[in-house]
Amino acid sequence: MGKILAKFRELQGTPIKFPFQNLPDVCKLKIFSYLGLIDKGLAAQVCHEWNLWLQSPSIWMNIDLTQLPLHSKRLRFHRCTAKCHAEHHVKISKFLLYLGRIRPLVMWISISLEITGS
């Protein structure tokens, strides 16, 4: 009994961690569904299992294309050029091809258009 109490006291100061992989599948899908567009892309690169989870059509019910930045420069003042627009077009095209492969159950989509006089 003394060894058990000693082990218990030793563990009391240690935070308990719950491994993500032990969650039920439905919980994993729910968690991934709350991620934004960029975060889903980053999460898909973590490991093969996460990549497979992120290909589930049910987590792509809400798609906000406004989260894809027009330019990759993180400058405060940046004037977009034709190159920025071309790169953005490629990003959107690749993303739409990806969505076409997984056939999402889209319920809501948000887009933003910039119309200029030039």
Could you describe the 3D structure shown?
Helix content is 46%, strand content 5%. By secondary structure, the protein is mainly α. Helix 5 (82-102) links the parallel strand 1 and strand 2. It is elongated, with a radius of gyration of 21 Å. It starts with a helix and ends in an 8-residue tail after the last strand.
Q: What is shown here, in short?
A:
With about 120 residues, this protein is mainly alpha-helical. Helices cover about 45% and strands about 5% of the residues. Strands 1-2 form a two-stranded parallel sheet.
Keywords:
single chain, mainly alpha, 118 residues
List the helices and strands and how they pair.
Elements lengths: L1 H11 L12 H9 L3 H7 L4 H6 L8 E3 L17 H21 L5 E3 L8
Helical residues, percent: 40-55%
Shape designation: elongated
Average pLDDT level: 80
Order of helices and strands: HHHHEHE
How does the major sheet shape up?
2 strands, parallel
Q: What's the total count of β strands? A: 2
- Beta-strand percent range: 5-15%
Question: Biggest sheet: strands side by side, in what order?
Answer: 1-2
What is the C-alpha radius of gyration, as a whole number of Å? Answer: 21 Å
Count every helix, treating DSSP H or I runs of 4 or more residues as helices.
Answer: 5
Oligomer: single chain
**SS-based structural class?**
mainly alpha
What are the low-pLDDT stretches, counting only 5+ consecutive residues below 50?
none
How far the N terminus sits from the C terminus, by CA atoms, comes to 81 Å
